[in-house]
């Protein structure tokens, strides 16, 4: 035996590591989404747009290497295949970015008239809607470059019944998609690029409906038809719930579970769901899709089993799987197919197809194929919170139950009794919640700077209500809809949502229900993800090495140092970190959204702390600006350039002036940043190091990428609009 083992080690060529890789050979395929995603992540991490041939070259070299070493130890061509997948991901991300390229507005506009087609309608608060418009024509503009063809516009008191496909004329004030609020913050401009949205803004008056509706042709016509059906169904659900005497927000929560259109739900209620760890209930994902598939499977199979002539002659289990697959596909379509729903449908679909072909579905392989398909079709999904949290939860659940499932099953077999079924159901909810919450915690903190401490309690109370009340009532409503008897079932669903909302509000009101945390560096998230994959995808004890990577990520986050000073690109607001680590804001009450983002990233919740006279802080302000002093270093933020010849200019290591100024007006020393530089660079972040001030701007952080409208995108003028407005 010893000789055989020594021979195996020698043939492997790399000792113990080779032996471990060979022992885990059946798990190699599980790493394919990781390899593909690594290439996609590399593309998005670059500081500039790569040459188009880089990805195909990497892919070709790795495939050639894999073929050349195919007679070597099996892990060597497998490694070449991993790098080939990374090259494929890199290539796909670049090609996808070029495929969706559309003109982006380069300058804000005054109120101008446009004619456009509505493609999406999103009700917000009372009387306010948000439209996504395409096929835009610009009667008042003469542009030197192409103009945006897809917009997102907010309308106040719009009136009327708006539907996808309608053409409208309206006056709007537009601006480019907003850049990140600070280096490392959420990048809406990148999301807008992949959605084809070239400008955002608001309507300067109510829209006027034009008689010539445009439904398009082919797939576009089908897409608008589905959007119209979703809109009608949403209104039907909301009306049924409201007419039953329940609050308006309840109806929109019910609609969110069916059509994924959240609508004007109270911000306080949404925050309560988040703080109670129940935000996943408002997103159509694995729980909802699995509940629907399970209820349909049980109903169809139970009904067919009650007819002996059919049950004894035909494969009713396969018929049931086919029916459940059809219903879940309809659920996918009517929900608008967001990423979590796509993943949930693919996983449930693989299980149901396996039943059709008398095969056993392998859970980790099913999520592998789901992840691969989504990344192949939409590489940009990798960068979104929805994709990351959805797959983190499911990978954690599958790997967790794979590890503890056998022991749990044996323990359950030894404890059979009257109360065993409800006990194990409750235990399953708690275990599932704990695993999923742990798997997604790091991603929740990264994207939302907030963590729900009582998520286990919230899910323990709310998930049974959703499973036994809310979703069965929704399925019943769909069954009654052809007969026009669905209103009372929607109302019943609404009553269940009221119970869930009461649970969310009660849990979120408990002391310490949520913890605000500062922004996390991307490097910590990447390290945590790789360590997590190592822990979850391997089967043998070396998987525990992944814990070291996850611990290193936590340490990296703990050591991460946020900026000491932030300056708004408008030059109207400054924030400086005091000795207690809090951000202190200048007195200005403008820039509300920007200020809220900075506060959240600082881990201060939602309340901004303003500088006050007489406070003993490192920052002092007056009517002409602010001065930040620490460790004999100084940063001066001035609202008027006439102060420059004074002491601030001579003594400041960094002098920031809100207005444009001449470069020679501050000869005394330090670095001068004027209003033009602020607008070109976006938010400026400053760190005080041993060498002095270190500066990073949003423009630096985004780099020369197509979605960075501050710079001219690589790839030519067709990617942006350099329009002049006469």
Can you tell me about this structure?
It is a single chain. Helix content is 51%, strand content 14%. By secondary structure, the chain is an alpha+beta fold. The chain has a six-stranded mixed β-sheet. A five-stranded mixed beta barrel has the order 1-2-3-5-4. Helix 1 packs across helix 2 (15-23) and helix 7 crosses helix 18 (487-508).
List the helices and strands and how they pair.
Blueprint: H1 2-12, H2 15-23, H3 32-45, H4 54-68, H5 75-99, E1 112-123, E2 128-137, E3 150-156, E4 167-175, H6 188-195, E5 199-203, E6 208-210, H7 218-243, H8 248-259, H9 267-275, H10 286-305, H11 308-311, H12 316-334, H13 339-356, H14 363-377, H15 385-414, H16 420-448, E7 450-452, H17 455-480, H18 487-508, E8 514-516, H19 522-537, H20 545-559, E9 565-567, E10 574-577, E11 583-585, H21 592-601, E12 609-610, E13 619-622, E14 625-630, E15 633-638, H22 647-651, E16 654-657, E17 671-673, H23 675-681, E18 684-689, E19 692-697, H24 698-702
Helix pairs in contact: 1-2, 3-5, 3-14, 4-5, 7-8, 7-18, 8-18, 9-18, 10-12, 10-13, 10-17, 12-13, 13-14, 14-15, 15-16, 16-17, 16-19, 17-18, 19-20
- Assembly form of the protein: single chain
**Mean pLDDT, as a whole number?**
83
What structural class should be given to the helix and strand makeup? alpha+beta
- Helix content percent band: 40-55%
Distance from N terminus to C terminus (CA atoms, Å) equals 86 Å
Rg over C-alpha atoms, rounded to the nearest angstrom: 28 Å
Choose one word for the global shape. globular
User: Which percent band covers the strand fraction?
Assistant: 5-15%
Spatial strand arrangement across the major sheet: 12-11-10-9-18-19
Helical stretch count?
24
Mind summarizing the main beta sheet?
6 strands, mixed
Tell me the number of strands. 19
Low-confidence stretches: 1-14, 712-726
């Amino acid at each position: 035996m010893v000789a055989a083992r020594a021979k195996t080690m020698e043939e492997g060529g790399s000792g113990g590591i080779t032996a471990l890789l060979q022992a885990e050979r059946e798990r190699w395929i599980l790493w394919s989404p990781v390899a593909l995603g690594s290439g996609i992540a590399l593309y998005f991490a670059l500081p500039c747009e790569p040459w188009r041939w880089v990805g195909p070259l990497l892919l070709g070299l790795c495939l050639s290497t894999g073929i050349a070493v195919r007679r070597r130890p099996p892990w060597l061509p497998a490694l070449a295949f991993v790098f080939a997948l990374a090259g494929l991901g890199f290539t796909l991300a670049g090609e996808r970015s070029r495929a969706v390229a559309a003109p982006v507005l380069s300058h804000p506009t005054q109120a101008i008239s446009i004619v456009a087609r509505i493609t999406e309608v999103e009700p917000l608060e009372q009387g306010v809607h948000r439209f996504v418009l395409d096929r835009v024509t610009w009667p008042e503009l003469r542009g030197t470059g192409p103009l945006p063809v897809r917009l997102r516009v907010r309308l106040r008191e719009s009136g009327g019944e708006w539907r996808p496909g309608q053409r409208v004329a309206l006056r709007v004030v537009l601006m480019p998609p907003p850049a990140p609020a600070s280096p490392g913050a959420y990048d809406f401009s990148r999301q807008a690029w992949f959605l084809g949205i070239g400008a955002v803004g608001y309507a300067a008056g109510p829209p006027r409906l034009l008689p010539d509706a445009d439904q398009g042709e082919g797939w576009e016509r089908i897409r608008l038809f589905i959007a119209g059906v979703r809109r009608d169904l949403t209104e039907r659900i909301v009306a049924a719930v409201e007419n039953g005497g329940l609050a308006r927000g309840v109806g929109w929560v019910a609609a969110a579970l069916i059509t994924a259109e959240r609508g004007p739900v109270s911000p306080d209620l949404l925050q309560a769901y988040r703080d109670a760890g129940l935000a996943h209930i408002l997103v159509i994902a694995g729980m909802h899709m699995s509940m629907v598939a399970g209820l349909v499977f049980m109903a169809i199979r139970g009904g067919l089993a009650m007819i002996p002539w059919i049950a004894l002659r035909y494969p009713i289990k396969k018929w049931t799987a086919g029916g459940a697959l059809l219903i879940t596909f309809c659920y996918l379509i009517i929900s608008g197919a967001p990423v979590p729903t796509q993943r949930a449908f693919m996983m449930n679909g693989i299980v149901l197809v396996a039943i059709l072909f008398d095969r056993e579905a392998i859970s980790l392989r099913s999520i592998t194929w789901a992840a691969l398909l989504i990344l192949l079709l939409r590489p940009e999904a990798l960068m979104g919170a929805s994709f990351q949290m959805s797959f983190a939860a499911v990978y954690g659940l599958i790997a967790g139950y794979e590890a503890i499932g056998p022991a749990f099953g044996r323990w359950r077999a030894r404890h059979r009794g009257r109360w065993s079924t409800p006990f194990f159901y409750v235990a399953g909810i708690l275990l599932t919640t704990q695993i999923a919450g742990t798997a997604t915690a790091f991603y929740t903190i990264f994207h939302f700077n907030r963590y729900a401490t009582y998520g286990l309690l919230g899910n323990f109370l709310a998930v049974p209500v959703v499973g036994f009340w809310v979703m069965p009532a929704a399925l019943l409503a769909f069954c009654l809809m052809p007969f026009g008897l669905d209103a009372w079932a929607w109302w019943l669903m609404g009553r269940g949502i009221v119970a869930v909302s009461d649970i969310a509000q009660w849990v979120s009101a408990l002391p310490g229900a949520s913890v605000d945390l500062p922004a996390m560096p991307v490097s910590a998230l990447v390290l945590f993800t790789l360590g997590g994959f190592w822990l979850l995808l391997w089967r043998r004890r070396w998987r525990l090495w992944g814990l070291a990577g996850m611990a290193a990520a936590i340490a990296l986050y703990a050591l991460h140092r946020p900026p000491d000073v932030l300056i708004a690109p408008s030059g109207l607001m400054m924030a400086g970190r005091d000795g207690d680590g809090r951000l202190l804001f200048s007195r200005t009450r403008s820039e509300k959204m920007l200020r809220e983002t900075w506060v959240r990233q600082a881990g201060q919740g939602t309340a901004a702390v303003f500088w006050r006279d007489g406070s003993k802080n490192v920052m002092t302000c007056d009517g002409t600006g602010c001065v930040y002093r620490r460790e004999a270093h100084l940063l001066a933020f001035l609202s008027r350039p006439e102060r420059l010849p004074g002491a601030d200019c001579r003594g400041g290591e960094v002098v920031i002036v809100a207005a444009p100024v001449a470069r020679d007006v501050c000869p005394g020393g330090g670095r001068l940043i004027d209003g033009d530089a602020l607008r070109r660079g976006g938010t400026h972040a400053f760190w005080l190091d041993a060498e002095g001030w270190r500066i990073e701007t949003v423009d630096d952080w985004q780099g020369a990428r197509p979605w960075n409208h501050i710079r001219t995108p690589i790839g030519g003028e067709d990617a942006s609009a350099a329009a002049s407005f006469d």
